[in-house]
Amino acid sequence: RRPSQWQVTMRVTLPWIMPGVIAGALFAFAVSFDQFVVSYFLSTPGEATLPVEIYAAIRKGFTPEINAVSTIIIAVSMGLMLVAARFFKFGGEK
């Protein structure tokens, strides 16, 4: 019996491309914080992205909330990287 296209995609193609998809998503997440200028100029007055909000808070003065948000962002980023590394076992035998 021949598998359907959906079965081939889910059981063969998706597992092979998943490390690249996860790495690309994590890279896009990390790079998005570096694009402050683009976020700053493209945001509307009523809505602001996280980097723009952090910048506005820093202009008012450093507060513990800014440090807490930065720590949370770093912890979440590192946690996602560790989960991805453990789940896909980059560079090792499966």
TrEMBL record:
Q: Does the keyword Nucleotide-binding apply?
A: no
Major localisation: membrane
The Gene Ontology biological process annotation of the record reads: transmembrane transport
Q: Name one Pfam family in it.
A: BPD_transp_1
* Domain ABC transmembrane type-1: from-to ranges: 1-84
Where are its TM segments located? 12-33, 68-88
Which locations, inside or outside the cell, does it occupy? Cell membrane
Give the way it sits in the membrane: Multi-pass membrane protein
Protein keywords: Cell membrane, Membrane, Transmembrane, Transmembrane helix, Transport
Can you supply one Gene Ontology CC term for this chain's record?
plasma membrane
Q: Which family does it belong to?
A: Belongs to the binding-protein-dependent transport system permease family. CysTW subfamily.
PANTHER family of this UniProt entry?
Answer: PUTRESCINE TRANSPORT SYSTEM PERMEASE PROTEIN POTI
Tell me the protein's name: Permease protein of polyamine ABC transporter
Q: Which organism is it from?
A: Mesorhizobium alhagi CCNWXJ12-2
